[in-house]
């Protein structure tokens, strides 16, 4: 039996509740602080941006949060997603490791992002909100929220980092298909955007700037709410359907992972797969290794500091305790647009601090190499972000071979790369570089971190 | 219950045999003729191009052809594909119709094409062939054969119509990912290509020219076989997994289609869904309407003649009795590259002649309108080819509304449009035109049809 096996679940096994890791953490999460007072924010501070249901989820300590029926109904369009025993890949790598991957590219938008986009659209619709604003880098998140908006009848406005808006028109086109409006950021529509453009009319934009614009629009318009695609607790919560399904699918195999791997930009796909396994690790004292993989060019978990910082450039967001490279940090160019964020989810950061997870930083050329080898073995072409998880899965599988031991490796294949063929083209043309971040620029952005007395 | 429902099947319900409609046809198919002698071809004539197993499938009258284990094993990477009751779409169209679609975009290449690519790669590998040559228009077929070649360790060479090679680099990049070589056609590598380039160094190429190149390379190199993505009997045979699965999935619903719809270029995705339903229609004398949908700009079934013609421009292929616009016919520009072929599968043509199926021709702007509305309702973005089926499904659903009757409509959503966002961009920018074919050019290409005494 040398062939890959796909483990599916019937539709009625879509989870009925999300898993909240906060209930199982050794210590409670650090509070989010108001950017002005530097005191913990309350629900009223967040109410201009989010509906109360999501604010409640941001701070709940309940272990399980029920998934509303209409959200499960939309999940049925693609969930449960498959878990695959990658026997073809094992053979190609000639490894005794048992490799599994959970595949989230089956969603209509091609990634894990709709898991939370659908939930956020639902709760906003329930709260009577008719418009959402958000930001997007390469467009994976923007297109997912556009999809969710189409299904729930919400208007969606996306501020897209200008360099991606110009260079990657296809995800923007997908947003248009779903009826969303997408404008390049910095734009002339917001104070944040205008102030950037005054200084630099040709600004290529950044995720931090785009967040500032989307937050400003929501904060200053009572009928518009803000939606974020990663980082926040409620976003990670929604993604845990991935890991909950994977646990049940693994029951069919008789295997349990020794190593769980996900790529991490803001942390949501990593958390989505890993949190249910980390909860079990805590409760049952298991030796599971859990690895968050980030780009060496934007090494938040491996080179950042664990401190309070802003989520955006204009310093409009609350302060979050997290691993950060500083809100002013601009990584060098690389292709995994979803991994270019200066910060990291507070929950993922806390897990790293407490030693419950590890972090690894990898260079992009090795990631594309792994992505191509994966596609040739298993057929699926990974998104550039997802290749980071594939890369470390390869490294662990080859370690098994060297050591002559069989370990079970599980990784999250968070999305397909059909919108990223330009990146693969560059890879084959030898145009990719493994650029490192600028040490001096990192030192400068870290020196500019806000001062918070509580620390 | 207003939500779309996805009907899945467990992996062990992947069909164990393909369905061969020839066994149930009222009259036998017309023979394929040698281009020189104009006498029926024998296996030896085809042996330079195809392995004997596929030549056997081309002419078999067995009702069932067993699917080899290794082919089913690869099918498991994405099959069984889902059947969806499109309740959200029904609601959006406010129709009493019950709409189902079978979704083939879940394959790694994003379309139905791997169903036959995998089988063809397997039989060639079994026959000791190490290299395949083929042609591709927009690239859906080329990328699918590249995928299959990667899994079975075959070298794949793809002659890609030059205008698509230049304008649509992303499917070419996908072929590279799978390890295939892709060259623009006309190329300087073949007599067929060189003779075109001598007359017109800037030739944009055509599917007919690319077929000539791929056939020439296979015919003149003993270690290279040729592979075709549609039209031939064995290709359509392999696609019947679609309809066989759909029949079983419909058993779960209690519904049976009144109308079955597929888009038709060479006829393979249409046949894949429709043939099992047509077989049942013949055997049980059912009133099922079966509709093949083609572009109004390349109206093979609705405006072509039923006659023997060549499959390629250089007149290298055998002569096939089919609906044809003439091998010299060049359609005006439109976006559904997979539907730009001058001919049609001989089996599909025969069914049209005998009245067992209908044909409809539609314009592209209406197709994109339908594709966008479909995406906003069901989340999935259809390929431009597939929007032709969506369009006619819409029209039939709206007829149900007008007439106040509920009919069950089933269509094949043959692929997703993630590689075709440029076409959607043009649609939103108002750049699409509904161009008609040139009547005089059609008359000229029909006047040049080969003379065959048997007719």
Tell me what you see in this structure.
The structure is a homodimer of 455-residue chains. Chain A is α/β, with parallel strands linked by helices and 455 residues long. Chain A has a domain of 266 residues: Rossmann fold, CATH 3.40.50.1100. Helices cover 42% and strands 16% of the residues of chain A. Chain A has a seven-stranded mixed β-sheet, sandwiched between helices. Chain A has a four-stranded parallel β-sheet with strand order 8-7-6-9, with helices on both faces. A two-stranded antiparallel sheet of chain A has the order 2-3. The relative contact order of chain A is 0.15. The model of chain A has no long low-confidence stretch (mean pLDDT 95). Chains A and B meet through α3, α6, α8, α16 and α18 of A and α3, α6, α8, α16 and α18 of B.
- What is the mean pLDDT of chain A? 95
Strand content of chain A: 15-25%
Low-confidence stretches of chain A: none
What value does the Rg of chain A take, in angstroms?
20 Å
Task: Give a summary of the structure in a few sentences.
The structure is a homodimer of 455-residue chains. Helix content of chain A is 42%, strand content 16%. The first copy, chain A, has 19 helices and 15 strands.
Notable characteristics:
homodimer, 455 residues, alpha/beta, seven-stranded mixed β-sheet, four-stranded parallel β-sheet, 19 helices, 15 strands
Topology:
The structure is a homodimer of 455-residue chains.
Chain A: E1 5-7, E2 17-19, H1 43-46, H2 52-59, E3 64-66, H3 69-75, E4 83-85, H4 87-93, E5 98-103, H5 114-126, E6 131-136, H6 140-152, E7 155-161, H7 162-167, H8 169-177, E8 181-185, H9 191-199, H10 207-220, E9 224-226, H11 233-239, H12 241-251, E10 259-263, H13 268-284, E11 289-295, H14 300-303, E12 305-310, E13 319-324, H15 346-353, E14 358-362, H16 364-378, H17 384-403, E15 408-413, H18 421-428, H19 439-447
Parallel strand pairs in A: 5-15, 6-7, 6-9, 7-8, 10-11, 10-15, 11-14
Antiparallel strand pairs in A: 1-4, 2-3, 4-5, 12-13
Helix pairs in contact in A: 2-11, 3-5, 5-6, 5-11, 6-8, 9-10, 11-13, 12-13, 16-17
